[in-house]
Amino acid sequence: MRLEARLQTELPALAWCMQLQQGDEAAQVDHGAEVLVLPDAIAEGCWAGALSAEGLLTADVCAATGVALHQGALWLCTPTHTLSRLHSLRLGSRLLVSNSLALVCAAAGRELDAGYAFYKDDFCSIQDGLSLARRSVPLADGHQLHLHYHCNVRVGADLRLQEQAKACPDIGSSYESYRALLLERIGAALRNAADERRPVGLQPISTLSRGYDSVTCTVLARELGCQEVLCFRDPEAQEPDADNGAALAARLGMQAHVAQRTAYQALDVCPLFLSTGTGGEDVFLAAHADVLRHRVLISGFHGDKVWDRHASNFSPDIVRGDPSGADLEEFRLDLGFFHLPVPFIACQRKQAIHAISAGEALAAWRVPGDYDRPFCRRLGEDAGLPRESFGMKKRVMSRAFSRGDQISSYLGPHAEPAFRDYLARHPVARRPQDLLLHTLQRGLTALGRTLGRHSYRLQRLLDAAAQRLSRHADDFHAQRALFPWGFAQRLEHYQAAWQRRV
């Protein structure tokens, strides 16, 4: 087996798609201009290891996707975080795999099922953990598109795919050992990203607000040479600069790039962020597009679950609670930046991390209330940040919206007319069976509330039945059309690029 790399300048910088015909000796990989091509691997992203197939596949911190030849077999690689995925499609004796949902559909000449109303539910299910995430979605022709997270995938001679879980590093049992592990792995990934053998050497930049997670990541990144941060003002807030990290950046001696949280509304980017199927809430980062190009973005996504002293779920399943951070993928492929979410490093050692936070060694850095992350606070204060300057109130820049009447405030005046035009031509799917199950789910929920006054056991039974139909709970409002709208535009872009490929 060998890899046949085919540069396609029409594709986004970091996009790639592999095609393999059963029995062929070469796997063909069409790729964008900034995808790394090695003798034994084709990849985008960075990892804490050598710039080789073995380094890619064995790294226990990986912010990359790719194809590799190792020990006589063909392998696929996903990141060790769950913010991105690989997409595979088997069409008879032909296998297609890509780091882009829209690209694999364009390459296969397939489309999503216009009548299927639950794509967003399926893609967001990864927030419930690896074991509960849906691993396939339907296409219009009846084929299933498979989704791969947090694994290496061995491709058999018969094109069958066998997933192997990623390794997880040991963090030790102390603040010092965990801190050292994070520094070592982040540093290794940054050296990998800056390697001179890459088409473009990437330099780090961190997000910085006044919350715990971004402060933690920025302090670590600064120690490894990072000099710049991304900050935001929120003009819709009562205090627009309440979460602006620029003052903290000044204390740390770092350059702050400050943008308005709503600046994205003047840009034609909403479809790009919606096209991944995970909600589009990270679109505010588009305001920093010029600064993000050719960078390693160091972020704190998932820090709330990993560093919270009051955490109680210690499952190694990587349970999150929201899909924030996952919307960046198509935007990232276009701009050519990597994404390294630090809290995912060794996050499956969550119980050991919690033991460190709850231990006596960090008692001096605990504060009253529910918003308490002693590991983060010690890092920030040791770096010279005053206690009251960060981690005092929980705020978020990624904001999900759950009602149809919030669409206008999300899209803004630039994008809303285009969406409304699409919605008029493509009404939200309302299959009879979906409407029936929606009615049943609502009925079971209401009945459980009523009968629960008389029988706790009966209420539990009804609630359990309603929970099994939870994906049918939402009304069929306009919000369900946001993903199809964004995906349709992204698919059209890839279809045109695929037709022009060499």
Question: Can you give a write-up of this model?
Answer:
This protein has 502 residues and is an alpha/beta fold. The protein has 3 domains: 2-166, Glutamine Phosphoribosylpyrophosphate, subunit 1, domain 1 (4-Layer Sandwich); 175-389, Rossmann fold; 412-495. 33% of the residues lie in helices and 19% in strands. The strands form 3 sheets. It has a 7-stranded mixed beta sheet, with helices on one face. Strand 4 and strand 5 (41-47) form a beta hairpin. Helix 2 (101-108) crosses helix 16, helix 5 crosses helix 12 (374-382) and helix 14 runs antiparallel to helix 15. The protein starts with a strand and ends with a helix. The model has no long low-confidence stretch (mean pLDDT 94).
Short description:
The protein has 502 residues and is an alpha/beta fold. 33% of the residues lie in helices and 19% in strands.
CATH class of the largest domain: Alpha Beta
Record the strand order, biggest sheet. Answer: 1-3-2-9-8-11-10
What number of domains?
3
CA-CA gap between termini = 23 Å
CATH architecture tag of the largest domain: 3-Layer(aba) Sandwich
* Beta-strand residue percentage: 15-25%
Globular, elongated, flat, extended or rod-shaped: what is the shape?
A: globular
Please outline the major beta sheet: 7 strands, mixed
Number of strands: 18
Structural class: alpha/beta
Radius of gyration: 23 Å
Roughly how much helix do the residues carry, as a percent range? 25-40%
What's the pLDDT, averaged over the residues? Answer: 94
* Stretches with pLDDT under 50, minimum 5 residues: none
The helix count comes to 16
Q: What fold name stands as the CATH topology of the largest domain?
A: Rossmann fold
